[in-house]
Here is the input.
Amino acid sequence: MGTAFCRKLASAGVDIFFTCWNADVEWPEVLRQEIIDLGVRCAYMEIDLSASTAAIELYAEVMKQLGQPTILINNAAYSTNNDYISLDVKALDDHYAVNMRSTFLLCAEFARAFAKADLPYGRIINLTSGQDLAPMPGELAYVATKGAISAFTRSLSRELAPLRITVNAVNPGPTDSTWMNDEVREYLLPQFPMGRIGTPNDAARLVAFLASEEAEWITGQIMNSEGGFIR
Here is the structure.
């Protein structure tokens, strides 16, 4: 989904800075060139967002390469299966470091820097996974840490409204990106009344709208864009 977000925003004239980790050697540079070919600036950084200093290091690099950003999209996620039998300290800490800590600290870095800049508006968009809507047994660490993003989004939106920064979260539902196989698709398809599974472009359209000037009156919302997905 991250690449879809980059392409969609770049096509609207937005400069892009993206992150990656353990990526194919050629892929980040291929994407960077693709974005540049759309007529905007683009840079990237390979960084482990589970590191305690990741948010500070990443934000410093963004400022160095492109200057003060006006849009922050927190799309990175860590996920393993953990039921009550397998749940342990390491599983919780691994999920917390990426899903919660990096997201929350990047939001704070963004807002602190934005408060010092003379900019008309800012946008923070966090990605969640529908933990507010139904149980996800067998994914306890994941649902706990991703669910926290919803609560954080709502409270942060109230704090940042005076700065003209909107803060929203998007739940794209099951999305057919690189993780699905045919077995998963066959299982999920009957649960989509529109007759297809969600694609990264579906999420990208909503993210692009929330990042736009037109979305200035929408903040503190958890937007479930799932094509009518039936749980």
Observations:
- The chain has one domain: 2-224.
- The longest helix spans residues 89-115.
